[in-house]
Specification:
Elements lengths: L5 E5 L4 H8 L4 E5 H4 L3 H4 L7 E4 L13 H9 L8 E5 L5 H9 L3 E7 L7 H13 L4 E7 L6 H9 L6 E6 L4 H10 L4 E4 L13 H11 L1
Parallel strand pairs: 1-2, 1-8, 2-3, 3-4, 4-5, 5-6, 6-7
Helix pairs in contact: 6-7, 7-8
Length: about 220
């Protein structure tokens, strides 16, 4: 089995948790909207690739200022050494933002459904839009209301074998997809740096995720 990759999400400046997660994760996600203005003080200590993300309230985050300031803060991560920038598929002025990102980093275009889980066909249509928009990495995340909702997010991975794709479902019912996604071919899966520091429903600690993969392997 090929090595599965874990992305540990940083939601606050807890140096101890970040250092601990560094031994378990392959890359980090820096949640600018959750960390706050101090996020720039964290990134110099990250000795692994990292993704910058800055979610608005409507996208499940905590950025409450305007869209222009949100994008400006996100793009400033390019000068801080971000390897990947996460921009939402529905963000304004995508055509202008994506080329800016790709001049210095890879562009991850994300889609989140906070209401439910569409069919695999619907998810595939979203992924094709992401690819057309210039995504280097595609990400589709849904919300699971029942165990069966794990199936579409896993099924769609096999539909794009040549695409770096991250696909899973949030929520307690979607935990299974978080574990199985990389085994099904997902580019990586997300985990929290520690217990109680989750950035989304159903996220498990990096230590737990790594232990699960060791058992499965």
């Amino acid at each position: 089995m090929k090595k599965v990759r874990i992305c540990a999400v940083i939601t606050e400046g807890d140096a101890r948790s970040i250092k601990r997660a560094a031994d378990l994760a392959d890359l980090f996600e820096v949640r600018i909207d959750l960390i706050g203005a101090d996020w720039r003080e964290i990134v110099p200590s990250l000795h692994k690739p990292w993704i910058a993300a800055n979610r608005s309230v409507k996208e499940g985050g905590k950025w409450r200022r305007g869209e222009k300031s949100r994008i400006s803060e996100l793009l400033s991560a390019l000068d801080q050494g971000a390897n990947i920038i996460d921009i939402e598929l529905n963000a304004q002025e995508m055509k202008d933002i994506v080329p800016q990102i790709k001049r210095k980093a890879e562009c991850l275009i994300s889609y989140h459904d906070w209401e439910g889980t569409p069919s695999a066909a619907r998810l595939a249509a979203i992924i094709r839009r992401q690819i057309a928009a210039g995504a280097d990495i595609c990400k589709v995340v849904t919300t699971a209301g029942k165990v069966e909702d794990n199936i579409p997010v896993l099924k769609v991975i096999a539909m794009f074998p040549r695409t770096r794709l991250v696909s899973f479902a949030m929520g307690a019912e979607g935990m299974l997809s978080r574990v199985l996604a990389p085994l099904a071919g997902s580019y990586f899966t997300y985990a929290s740096v520690d217990q109680g520091k989750e950035s989304a429903p159903g996220q498990v600690p990096a230590e737990t995720m790594r232990q699960l993969f060791r058992i499965i392997k």
